[in-house]
Amino acid sequence: MKLDQILELLSFTLPAIVTGVVAYYFFLTHTKNEEVKMKLSMVKANRKQALPIRLQAYERMTLFLERMNPSNLLLRVTSVNNDEKAYSLSLINTIEQEFEHNLSQQIYISEKCWSVIVASKNATIHIIKQNSENESVENAQELREAILKTVLNSSSPSTAALSFIKEEVRDFI
């Protein structure tokens, strides 16, 4: 009789245990799915909020590159005393000040894009220094002409950086 009672007990408890295990795994899977959904919705909301900020950062860096472009820079910054050394320092200081003003934008743009912008800035400064050290350049007006000739003969460093920014923005929008 004891064996019959044990079998009868097992016939009731075994289905209850199986049902309990199935329910446990079902709820575990359901809970994980809900957690993933919540994380995805949070990421989506963050992206929605971050997109305008990122676009603004790219806009500011585009403006920086345009202002740093030697042809635009030479129009904005004029020589006070026609000294080529003072003028080259004034041009370089203008670029550095603009760059420092936009340093915080690196948070919102990709690391690769930031390195392209820094390389563009350094290349532009190098062009200015190289032309100011040219012995045939004797005054600020000749320095302006030499820089413009250099930029006209090859593309401006900011042009390459601008095309990189445009491509990167196109990719994430």
* SSE pattern, N- to C-terminal: HHHHHH
Helix content range of the residues, please? over 70%
The shape is rod-shaped
Query: How many E strands?
Result: 0
Mean pLDDT: 91
Q: Low-confidence segments, ≥5 residues, pLDDT <50?
A: none
The major pleated sheet works out as: none
Rg on CA atoms, Å? 32 Å
Structural class: mainly alpha
Strand fraction: under 5%
Number of helices: 6
CA distance, first residue to last residue: 75 Å
Structure notes:
The termini are far apart. 83% of the residues lie in helices and 0% in strands. The protein is mainly α. It has six helices and no strands. Helix 1 packs antiparallel against helix 6. The chain is rod-shaped and about 120 Å long.
Which keywords apply here?
rod-shaped; single chain; 173 residues; mainly alpha
Per-chain topology:
Elements: H1 2-68, H2 70-76, H3 84-101, H4 111-132, H5 140-153, H6 157-172
Helix pairs in contact: 1-6, 3-4, 3-5, 4-5, 4-6
